[in-house]
From TrEMBL:
ATP-binding listed as a keyword: yes
Sample GO molecular function, one term: ATP binding
Organism for this UniProt entry: Priestia veravalensis
CDD domains listed in its UniProt record: ABC_NikE_OppD_transporters
Protein name: Dipeptide/oligopeptide/nickel ABC transporter ATP-binding protein
């Protein structure tokens, strides 16, 4: 069974069709990479999948359940199964909240529907420290504010927050784009570790074909709102690739 199934998704802004019949499946345990030039609709797709935007037509099925037009109340118990990590961790964290408050927020929101497998909750302090430990940060970070952290540390915090309710799927929308090369590498390694330890599936959106190649089992290529190519990662250099994929490969 597919964890996520997207069928003929269409999204229009004004008169501009930004997503054109986008269809794909993502299997449990899989990392599906998504690449394509700036403006091709990658972030719009991720916002539609998260139901931050309403689609014009098409279906989004999570665990075989249609979610594209569910009410907020009906979506709530399903919504805990998928989380998103954005490109800019500074914008994703409330500057007025200490890290511990940001980390507790999703748990407190969903606690009635949660039965945790990997984390335990005996106290707020212990839970926050377990989360920080999972993303390679010291427990003392809990008492700090976002502006007291580096970009790499902030992205680790947003990852800790995303995994705190043990989702099955995490949408990674260019999670390393705002970081320096060394921090990018360590976040990629962390993503690999978290996937293995927490049995996660990823939709990994990135401009960085090298990073996508490293983390993903399959790669999907978008151009001007359409999926133009989809293949197993080891087939990236095969002759039958779409000309646009070949163009992307030649840049890297
Ligand atoms: N809220 C909006 N209102 C109107 N147009 C929008 C809106 N959001 C995105 N667009 C347009 O939709 C198209 C796709 O944008 P989107 O941000 O999804 O691309 P992207 O592939 O994620 O780009 P990047 O890699 O630069 O983040 C662009 O032409 C953009 O201008």
């Amino acid at each position: 069974m597919s964890l996520l199934s997207v069928q003929n998704l269409t999204k229009t802004y004004g008169g501009q069709q930004v997503l054109k019949n986008v269809s794909f499946d993502l299997k449990k345990g899989e990392c599906l990479g998504l690449v394509g030039e700036s403006g091709c609709g990658k972030s719009t797709l991720s916002r539609c999948l998260m139901r931050l935007e309403q689609v014009n037509s098409g279906k989004i099925l999570f665990r075989n359940q249609e979610i594209q037009s569910l009410s907020s109340r009906k979506l709530m118990p399903i919504r805990k199964g998928f989380q998103i990590v954005f490109q800019n961790p500074t914008a994703a964290l409330n500057p007025k909240l200490k890290i511990k408050a940001s980390l507790l927020d999703p748990y407190l929101q969903y606690r009635k529907q949660l039965s945790l497998r990997y984390f335990s909750f005996s106290s707020k302090e212990q839970f926050v420290s377990e989360l920080l430990n999972m993303v390679g940060l010291p427990a003392s970070i809990a008492e700090r504010y976002p502006h007291e952290l580096s970009g790499g540390q902030k992205q680790r915090v947003t990852l800790a927050r995303a995994i705190s309710i043990e989702p099955e799927l995490v949408i990674l929308d260019e999670p390393t784009a705002s970081l320096d090369v060394i921090s990018q590498r360590s976040i990629l390694h962390l993503l690999e570790d978290l996937r293995d330890q927490l049995d996660l599936s990823y939709l990994f959106i990135s401009h960085d074909l090298t990073a996508v190649k490293e983390l993903s089992q399959r790669i999907m290529v978008m151009k001007q709102g359409e999926v133009v190519d989809m293949f197993r990662t080891e087939e990236l250099f095969h002759a039958q690739r779409n000309p646009y994929t070949k163009e992307l490969v030649s840049i890297f």
